[in-house]
Amino acid sequence: MAGNEWINGYLEAILDVGSGTRKRYDGQLKIAKFPEHKVQVKEEKVFSPTKYFVEEVINSFDESDLHRTWVKVIATRNTRERSNRLENMCWRIWHLARKKKQIAWDDARRLAKRRLEREQGRNDAADDLSELSEGEKEKGDSNYTEASKDMSRINSDTQIWFDDDKAKHLYIVLISMHGLVRGENMELGRDSDTGGQVKYVVELARALANTKGVHRVDLLTRQITSPEVDSSYGEPTEMLSCPSDGSGSCGAYLIRIPCGPRNKYIPKESLWPHIPEFVDGALNHIVTMARALGDQLNGGKPTWPYVIHGHYADAGEVAARLSGALNVPMVLTGHSLGRNKFEQLLKQGRLSREDINATYKIMRRIEGEEMGLDAAEMVVTSTRQEIEEQWGLYDGFDPKLERKLRVRRRRGVSCLGRYMPRMVVIPPGMDFSYVTTQDSLENDGDLKSLLGPDRAQNKRHLPPIWSEIMRFFTNPHKPTILALSRPDPKKNVTTLLKAFGECQALRELANLTLILGNRDDIEEMSNSSSVVLTTVLKLIDKYDLYGQVAYPKHHKQSEVPEIYRLAAKTKGVFINPALVEPFGLTLIEAAAYGLPVVATKNGGPVDILKVLHNGLLVDPHDQKAIADALLKLVADKNLWAECRKNGLRNIHRFSWPEHCRNYLSHVEHCRNRHPTSRLEIITIPEEPMSDSLRDVEDISLRFSIEGDIKLNGEIDAATRQKKLIEAISQLASSNSNTGITYSPGRRQMLFVIAADCYDNNGGITETFQAIIKNVMKAAGLSIGLGKVGFVLVTGSSLRETMQALSSCLVNIEDFDSLVCNSGSELYYPWRDMVADTDYEAHIEYRWPGENVRSMAMRLARTEDGDKDDITEYVEACSSRCYSYSIKPSAKLLQTRRMDDLRQRLRMRGFRCNIVYTRAASKLNVVPLFASRMQALRYLSIRWGIDLSKVVLFVGERGDTDHEDLLGGLHKTLVLKGSVPYGSEKLLRSEDNFKREDAVPQDNSNINSIENYEAHNIAGALDALEIK
């Protein structure tokens, strides 16, 4: 494989060493025998290191330790010592080969188990959906088959988005969290996080903003103020497109959200713990923008996003949480998928599952993608292959079940609470503004007409990048074979170079240009990039390709169009020989400049060439097939002209306007299935009197009340104030049913008590009551009670919570809200403990209801568990929370962990949130969008309280949603010793991601105190600068 090409050069040197050794020692060199591997070497036969490498170990091996060993080999001058090192090197490879086989065996067992679980989930779903008629099944299958014949754009039940009849003013939010994102002078290829996705999302934002009916597009990314990068990445806002006059559009903007370390540029693998902070920052921006647009366009009513679109796994999780908080449809684009990468890395056998997870945070990434699938209305893919071979690997998507559910919806048949996101193929668009009319002309002359016989005389008239490339060639007039990619082993450039070097006819007819990113010093590049570039140089030397291959060190992104033009002027060919290409945007770019293409048959190029008909597909592992395809296009001018013509004729199907029309049509169709209710922001023209007067020590409030109430007789000021407060309070209560909505008003802070204080049996401890009293007392000491609202969030039911509070010397009405049953219920004590029906409607979406009630209990038990290990806890159940009691003896051995249970529910099409609470004695199954943290986000929007003004009081451990409460813009105070027993042992399996991948380790918003006395809490609040 491409990643191991460096070994070939070493083998040749090893062979030379072996030859010299044979002459000097007359065949006395031997290798130690390895009985387990059955390597037998006859004494009279000289050991061949080359043969051993090639025949026994080289397959798919790329081990940096071998490289270091080889350095030691060539550094040793004594021949006998060198031979001994070769033997040691062979032994190391043999040992690693055994390790690889063990990894492959473990992987095969894991995959077999996973396939069995998926099949069981599919069978369970099929049994429940068995009433679907045969006619409906045939209809569903035929629809899918027909759609698969070509690259589907718009389904029969989706109306096309027309420009002339869209008077809407849509607000669209795109999210691309990682990498260096800016509108101009993109540093594509600077690192693995700043690649094609950056270019794609910026151009998508601009294209959508230029589409009629779209008022504003915001592209949210991470703000980076690190000295390592340009200062432009620290600007909070950047305009991407200026609206045209009279369009009524607001344009496209790049919004940078602070997230993670402020002065450090970190890779995407390190961003996972900081996602909640990004969510809260994005939520603040969207709410602010919704209000502003509402005042401008909607008569003061907030204008919420038309859709929230997450790009890649990290932004997909952000979009999922925002979608749940705002009740707005979500779209997901994966770009590249973690599970697919995970499977490939395991097959290579170089890294164990634990090593892969530690290096790439792959399990955390996969969970982010699964969460995106849970919440997404629609998943945008580039190719059909991406749907079937990549998304099909996920628990949350089963192609067969998705087709069955889609047919049921069309027929008006119940899906029994099951849901699968809709996958649509919408190829990425391309900006053709750089393509001139001259690029598409048939007879625009060849390079000779521009260069002339003496290129030196006309060099000043050529683009600089042309001169940079042509300086490599002996004859620059020959057709150019162009390859443009990162120096990545997966791009398979070395196989292309070998195919070119070994085909004499191709070498005589054409030159080869390799644009492999930018480099200053190969040794300073990443290991994989330096290996590829070193191999390229060695192969050029091996085949003596000097004067026939160009490999410039630098090029600007703005010069890429000129590179394509140069290849077209020479009547050349573009090639993408990648081992697997998810889409292949460079193929579309090449076609736009009139270049025929040769492309890998693995992935997106298959669909692209079906549309463009402008080239040939090849097996990327077959050198001869690559050489033959290139030779065919270069030598046959008629075929070359036909491919060029086809590409130019069909390229409009990949334009950004076409992409946006398809995109908005599909989004509009998905929105028809989304609830129409939208979150309302409560506007309060004046501060509620009954709330404001709660703190009578505030002088500014004491005499600010005006009214028509008159009191008879002479009364002192204190008594008069007291009676006035009582009168106004009675007036407020008498009007409580007249439609006036109450809220905490202009609170300065919101204190949230989330300490899960339970004993080993799940009973609420006295610590719970002490914490409530001490937090309220500390609030009075630090800030003033009238300025602070109190919220209690718990995994217990309302009845259990009321029983616990009844023995506490605190008035229940001192709380502004109670969030019960793990975020599935929201109550207001000041409103006679009436549930918030708007919140119930808010979280109801995708709630399977009764359909999951018995299934969850059955799946929560392990295979060897007894039926009574987990039973329904009827007293705590509600319409949006099913609770189950867990026997103490079954907590660890007979109960599935949360991630395992959620996986099994996903496989059956159920989208739920799973929480173990009350020291793992109780299981809550609640709606997908219900959680304690999401309830707080809901309240912050409704009440207009910024999340940075919220303080959470938690224990060191708690329910399985404890980690969700720690990250974000809010302040967190950890009360050590307050929670002796938690449910964390049922949170995740050992082979899943770790706590540090979910909770930020160094977070200035989190503080801890040793006890929970009021004065200690007040001191901690001062340390967090809460005043």
TrEMBL record:
Q: For this chain's UniProt record, which GO biological process terms are given?
A: sucrose biosynthetic process
The entry's function note states: Plays a role in photosynthetic sucrose synthesis by catalyzing the rate-limiting step of sucrose biosynthesis from UDP-glucose and fructose- 6-phosphate. Involved in the regulation of carbon partitioning in the leaves of plants. May regulate the synthesis of sucrose and therefore play a major role as a limiting factor in the export of photoassimilates out of the leaf. Plays a role for sucrose availability that is essential for plant growth and fiber elongation.
UniProt name for this protein: Sucrose-phosphate synthase
What's the Enzyme Commission number for this chain?
2.4.1.14
**Residue stretches of biased makeup (Basic and acidic residues):** 134-150
**Enzyme class, UniProt record, top EC level:** transferase
- A Pfam family that this protein carries is Glycos_transf_1
Keywords from the named record: Glycosyltransferase, Transferase
Q: Which InterPro entries match?
A: Glyco_trans_1, HAD-like_sf, HAD_sf, SPP-like_dom, SPS, SPS_C, SPS_pln, Sucrose_synth_GT-B1
Q: Which residues form the Sucrose synthase first GT-B domain?
A: 171-433
What's a single GO MF annotation on this record? sucrose-phosphate synthase activity
Quaternary arrangement and interactors, per the entry?
Answer: Homodimer or homotetramer.
Segments forming domain Glycosyl transferase family: 475-647
Q: What is the lineage of its organism?
A: Eukaryota, Viridiplantae, Streptophyta, Embryophyta, Tracheophyta
